[in-house]
Design a protein that fits this description.
Elements (H helix, E strand, L loop, with lengths): L1 H29 L1 E6 L7 H16 L4 E6 L4 H10 L4 E5 H9 L12 E17 L14 E5 L4 H12 L8 E4 L2 H9 L5 E6 L4 H9 L2 E4 L4 H9 L4 E5 L11 E13 L4 H13 L1 H5 L23 H9 L5
Parallel strand pairs: 1-2, 1-3, 5-6, 5-7
Antiparallel strand pairs: 3-10, 4-7, 4-8, 4-10, 9-10
Helix pairs in contact: 2-9, 5-8, 6-7, 9-11
Length: 325
C-alpha cells in the first residue's frame, strides 16, 4: 500500500514537473522584444528611447514586453527602417514623417504607408552654431563658409537645405560637410568648420559641451525669409533659444522648430502600441527625468503636430483619455 502511494506521489510530481517545463518555453514564446530606433547618442532621441525602454520594463514585464533603444541615423533613416520592417518604433521629425508617408522625392523614392503615428513629443529647434571668429551673424553669412549640414539621412540635413533655400542659397553656395553631431562639434572646436546645423532639443549636450570648450554663437533664423519658409513648409514654427542656455550666449535668439514624434509599423499589434503609450504617459516622472526637454510632455499635447495617420493602438489610447472625441 505504501509503495502504491509512493508511486502515485512520484507520478504526480513528474506530472507537475512536466507542466512546469512545458510552461517555460510557452512563456518565453509570449515575450516580445520591441525595438525603438532613435538617433545620435548625444541628442534627445536616444534618452527618450531609453526612458521608454525603462518604463516598459517597469510596467510591462509581466506582459512579456521588453523594449530596446537603438542608436541610428535619425529621421530619414528611421523612416526607412520602419518601411523595411527593421524596427518596431522610431523617433523622427514630424516633417520627415509626412514626407515619408507621402513618398516625397528626392528624400523617399516611394510612399512608406507602413509608417503610422503614435504621439508627438517635444519641439526640436533648428540651432545654427557658429565659431565667433567666423564672422557669421545671419544665415546669409553662411555663403562660402565651411558648414556641417547634418548627418546622412537626418532630418537636420533637410532642415538645412530648406532654410538655405528660403535665403536664396543652396548647397553649392557653401562648403558643406555631412557629419554626425559629435563630429561636427569636434570640427568646430578645432576650427575645421565655421558653422553647423543641429535640429535638436534646446540644451542638447553636444552644443553645451561645444560652448564650454569654444567661443560660439547661435545664429538667428529670423526675418521675412522665415515667413517664406513657413509658407512653403508649414511644419515649422517660430521659436527661440533662451538666453543663458549656452555659455557666451546671454540673449534670446530667434529660430524655427519642428516636432519630434514617435511612430510605429502599421502591422504592430494594437495592444502593444496601446500598452506602451499608456505606460509612458502613466509614468511621466520617469520620462521627464531623462532630459530637460521632456519636462512639458503630456498626453493632452500628444497629438499636436501629428502629421501622419494614427496607429489603431494609439487611437484607442487617445480616445480613452478623451484627447480624441
Amino acid at each position: 500500500m505504501r509503495r502504491r502511494k509512493g508511486l502515485i506521489l512520484y507520478l504526480v510530481l513528474i506530472f507537475i514537473l512536466s507542466l512546469a517545463l512545458a510552461a517555460g518555453p510557452a512563456d518565453a514564446a509570449k515575450r516580445r522584444f520591441i525595438s525603438i530606433a532613435s538617433g545620435w547618442v548625444t541628442g534627445a532621441y536616444y534618452p527618450m528611447a531609453g526612458a521608454i525602454s525603462r518604463i516598459a520594463w517597469k510596467h510591462l514585464k509581466d506582459k512579456g514586453i521588453k523594449v530596446t533603444a537603438e542608436s541610428s541615423g535619425a529621421s530619414v533613416a528611421n523612416a526607412n527602417l520602419i518601411g523595411a520592417g527593421d524596427t518596431d518604433f522610431a523617433i523622427l521629425q514630424n516633417d520627415i514623417a509626412f514626407y515619408a508617408y507621402n513618398g516625397t522625392k528626392p528624400m523617399f523614392e516611394a510612399p512608406i504607408k507602413e509608417l503610422l503615428g503614435v504621439c508627438t513629443l517635444f519641439p526640436e529647434h533648428v540651432q545654427v552654431v557658429a565659431r565667433k571668429g567666423a564672422n557669421i551673424n545671419s544665415i546669409a553669412d553662411l555663403k562660402g563658409k565651411k558648414v556641417c549640414i547634418g548627418d546622412v539621412g537626418s532630418g537636420t540635413a533637410e532642415n538645412c537645405k530648406q532654410i538655405l533655400e528660403a535665403w536664396g542659397l543652396g548647397l553649392d553656395d557653401i562648403k558643406s560637410e555631412m557629419l554626425k553631431a559629435e563630429q561636427a562639434a569636434d570640427y568646430i572646436k578645432d576650427g575645421r568648420l565655421d558653422a553647423a546645423f543641429f535640429t535638436v532639443a534646446v540644451g542638447s549636450a553636444v552644443i553645451l559641451d561645444t560652448a564650454v570648450v569654444s567661443d560660439i554663437k547661435i545664429v538667428p533664423v529670423e526675418g521675412p525669409n522665415v515667413d517664406k519658409l513657413i509658407k512653403k513648409y508649414p511644419f515649422y514654427a517660430k521659436e527661440s533659444v533662451a538666453g543663458g542656455t549656452y555659455k557666451g550666449n546671454d540673449a534670446d535668439v530667434a529660430t524655427v522648430s519642428v516636432m519630434a514624434m514617435l511612430s510605429t509599423r502599421a502591422d504592430l499589434e494594437a495592444d502593444i502600441v496601446y500598452s506602451i503609450l499608456k505606460a509612458m504617459y502613466g509614468d511621466l516622472d520617469q520620462l521627464r527625468k531623462a532630459h530637460d526637454k521632456f519636462k512639458k510632455i503630456s498626453a493632452e499635447t500628444g497629438l499636436i503636430g501629428m502629421s501622419v495617420p494614427l496607429h489603431p493602438g494609439a487611437e484607442k489610447y487617445f480616445k480613452e483619455i478623451k484627447v480624441i472625441k
